[in-house]
Amino acid sequence: MTEIAVAYDVASLEDALALDARLGPGPELAKVGLELYTAAGPEAVRSLAGRGRRVFLDLKLHDIPNTVRGAARAASRLGAELLSVHATGGREMIAAAVDGVREGGGATRVIAVTILTSLDPADMPPGFAAPFSIAAVAPRLLALAESAGAAGIVCAAGDLPAIRRAHPEPFYAVTPAIRPSGGAAQDQRRVTTVSEAVRLGSSLMVLGRAISHAPDPAAALVAAREECRVAEAVGASTQRGLPDSSRVP
Ligand code: C5P
Hints:
This protein is α/β, with parallel strands linked by helices. It has one domain: TIM Barrel. Helix content is 42%, strand content 17%. The chain is built from ten helices and ten strands. An eight-stranded parallel barrel has the order 1-2-3-4-5-6-7-10, surrounded by six helices. Strands 8-9 form a two-stranded parallel ribbon. Strand 4, helix 5 and strand 5 form a beta-alpha-beta unit. The protein binds cytidine-5'-monophosphate. Cytidine-5'-monophosphate binds next to strand 10 and helix 9.
């Protein structure tokens, strides 16, 4: 089954708890990202976990290995289930995050962002890394992340077929930039519908504004889940769940 994470991209702990209450039984995971974490800090994770939510701490860490290791250790102590880092931080940095969560003693899994869903290769500054093809780069970032002990990757659902062609073994894939059928792309460039993400084998889809900005977030979530259910009934999924624990390289 494809799980759903809702991005609690709100300005305060109060707003996060209000959204959480409105979501009722809610999503499988609450995603705490840069906006909420910067505003409310670790209390955001503690409060949501304290209400029984599984928390995806989406800090997209990208720094020197020693710094990332310390941040990952702290995230592990907070009880986050997932912690994101940028795969482009390199193998040593991803491995440092995996070591950090182990040192923290929690059950946090590290997942590595391949190429942001808001980026097209054409968006890269001239002379930086352009031109590159997602089909060529994303599978290499997955292999790098796995070799460093990450539990999976974050990528656009639309990148999954190209990644699988180069890397046929199953892997855990978190896919943001998901819209219900007919939803607006906003600042995202490479969006996918809920049913398409299921069909492409997303393990965990992230829904942000499509839920949090809906007039009735709980109803929008129920509708997304129904779209998932119908898509799952139609086709056998290639999706894979989280491995038992982050693998040691
Ligand atoms: O509102 P929307 O559904 O576009 O929000 C997507 C969420 O997923 C945001 O919280 C964003 O930070 C996050 N995300 C993303 N692209 C990635 C990784 C995370 O949009 N590659």
